[in-house]
TrEMBL record:
Organism this protein belongs to: Sulfurisphaera javensis
Protein name as it appears in the record: YncE family protein
Keywords: Membrane, Transmembrane, Transmembrane helix
Keyword Transmembrane on entry: yes
Transmembrane region(s): 12-36
Signal peptide residue numbers: none
Keyword Membrane set for record: yes
Superkingdom of source: Archaea
Length: 408
C-alpha cells in the first residue's frame, strides 16, 4: 500500500474545505432565489390606522318621502332625493300668523328609523294646545288642551304608533293619548310643593314601549315612567343646576343620552337602570339640544340649538370624534334630528326663520357626510317620514301644486 505524504494530506484537506465552502455558497444562493421568487408571487397588504365612520350595512334605503310641517302651519310633501328644489305639494293645515308666537310649533317625534303610519297626526302648538289632523285629508278634526302658557310642548309616538305621549313644559303636564279613540289614558303634573313647574321639556318612549323617559329641567332629574299608568319607576338625580331638558334612547333600548342646558353637556346612561356611563362637554359656544344614535349605536349625533353643525360622539369612549358642518342659515341652530326608515340617513332640521327659510339635510350614516340638501322657503318645525305611496296619494289628491309665493 502506498503511503500518503504529509504534503498530499494537506492538499486533500484544502480541496475538501474549498468544496464545502462552494456547496454552502450554492445552498445560500438557492435559498435566496426561492425566497425572492415566493415574494414576487404574493401580495403584500399595508395597513394604515385610520378613523372610519363606515357602518356594516352597504345597502341604501331611499324608499321614503318627507312630510315637512312648518312653523306657519303648512305641510309640504317633499322628495328629498329630487335633483330640483321644487316641492311636490303643500297645504295650510292650520292658518298660523307669523306675528303670534304662541302658535309656533315645537317638536313631534317618531322612534328613530320608523315610518309614520298612525291614525292621526298630533301637532303641538306653542300655547299648550295640540291639533288632531287626519293624515288622509290633512284636515284638523279636533284639538286637545294640555296647558295654557307659552313654552316647550311636544309629542312622541309610541313604537306601535297607537299612542302618543305629550309633554308641556310650562304647565308641567305629561299625558298619554290613545290614538284609536283620542281618549286620555293618564295625565300627571310635575310641579313643586309651591306649585312651580318642574318643566318637562321632552318625553320619549323606550323602544320596547314599556317606559317613558321624561327630563324635568327645573327639578334636575330624569324620570323613567311606566307608559301604561304614569307611575314613576326610577329617578335619575342630576347635579344641581344641570337642567336636563332633552333625551334620546338608542334603538337597542340599552342607553339614553341626556342634553343638559345648565352646563352644555350630554350625559349617557344605561337603560332601564339609568346608571352613569359617561359625560361629554360640548365645545365652547355650542349648546346641545337634540340628538340621535346611529342605528348600530356606535355614534351619537348631537344637533346644537345655536350652530349649523352636527357633533359626532363615540359611544365607546364618550369622546367627540368628528364635526359635520352644515349649510349656514341665519339664525343658526337646529330644530331636530332623526333617523330615516331603513337607517341609511339622519335627517336634520335647520330652523332658519319664517321669512328667510330653513333647510332639511340628509346625512349619510355610512360616511357621516352630507348626502342631500332640501332648501325651504319658510321655517320647518318637524318632519314625519312617510311611504312613497302615501306621499304620492297626498300629492295627487290632497295637496296643492307648488305655486311660488304661497308657501313663503
Amino acid at each position: 500500500m502506498k503511503k500518503i505524504s504529509k504534503l498530499e494530506r494537506g492538499m486533500t484537506y484544502k480541496i475538501l474545505l474549498l468544496v464545502g465552502f462552494v456547496i454552502i455558497l450554492l445552498i445560500g444562493i438557492g435559498a435566496a432565489y426561492i425566497m425572492m421568487k415566493s415574494s414576487s408571487t404574493s401580495t403584500t397588504t399595508s395597513i394604515t390606522p385610520t378613523t372610519s365612520f363606515s357602518s356594516t350595512s352597504t345597502s341604501v334605503n331611499n324608499n321614503f318621502y318627507l312630510l315637512v310641517f312648518t312653523q306657519k302651519g303648512i305641510v309640504q310633501a317633499i322628495n328629498p332625493f329630487s335633483q330640483t328644489s321644487s316641492f311636490l305639494g303643500f297645504q295650510h293645515v292650520v292658518n298660523i300668523s307669523v306675528n303670534v308666537p304662541q302658535q309656533i310649533y315645537y317638536w313631534d317625534e317618531l322612534l328613530n328609523g320608523r315610518m309614520f303610519n298612525a291614525s292621526y297626526i298630533v301637532i303641538p302648538v306653542n300655547n299648550g294646545t295640540v291639533y288632531i289632523v287626519n293624515p288622509t285629508t290633512m284636515k284638523v278634526v279636533g284639538n286637545l288642551s294640555v296647558g295654557k302658557s307659552i313654552g316647550f310642548i311636544g309629542v312622541a309616538y309610541s313604537p306601535n304608533e297607537e299612542y302618543v305621549a305629550i309633554a308641556d313644559g310650562p304647565s308641567g303636564a305629561v299625558e298619554v293619548i290613545n290614538l284609536q279613540n283620542l281618549q286620555v289614558i293618564w295625565k300627571d303634573t310635575f310641579v313643586s310643593p309651591t306649585g312651580k313647574t318642574y318643566y318637562p321639556c321632552d318625553v320619549r318612549w323606550t323602544p320596547n314601549g314599556d317606559y317613558l323617559i321624561v327630563p324635568l329641567r327645573f327639578n334636575d332629574s330624569v324620570d323613567l315612567i311606566y307608559a301604561s299608568n304614569g307611575s314613576v319607576a326610577k329617578v335619575l338625580v342630576t347635579s344641581l343646576g344641570s337642567q336636563p331638558y332633552m333625551v334620546s334612547p338608542n334603538e337597542q333600548g340599552t342607553m339614553v343620552a341626556v342634553e343638559y342646558a345648565g352646563n352644555n353637556s350630554v350625559g349617557f346612561y344605561s337603560l332601564p337602570s339609568l346608571q352613569y356611563l359617561g359625560m361629554v362637554q360640548m365645545p365652547s359656544g355650542v349648546v346641545p339640544q337634540r340628538g340621535a344614535f346611529t342605528p348600530n349605536g356606535q355614534y351619537y349625533l348631537e344637533a346644537p340649538s345655536n350652530k349649523d353643525e352636527i357633533v359626532v360622539i363615540s359611544t365607546s369612549n364618550f369622546q367627540i370624534v368628528n364635526t359635520i358642518s352644515l349649510p349656514s342659515i341665519n339664525p343658526a341652530g337646529l330644530a331636530s334630528i332623526g333617523i330615516t326608515p331603513g337607517g341609511s340617513y339622519a335627517y336634520v332640521i335647520i330652523h332658519g326663520s319664517v321669512s328667510s327659510g330653513g333647510m332639511i339635510v340628509l346625512i349619510n350614516l355610512q360616511t357621516l357626510s352630507i348626502a342631500y340638501e332640501v332648501p325651504l322657503t319658510t321655517a320647518p318645525a318637524f318632519v314625519l317620514p312617510v311611504s312613497v305611496s302615501t306621499a304620492t296619494y297626498l300629492v295627487d289628491n290632497v295637496l296643492l301644486p307648488p305655486i311660488t309665493g304661497l308657501h313663503c
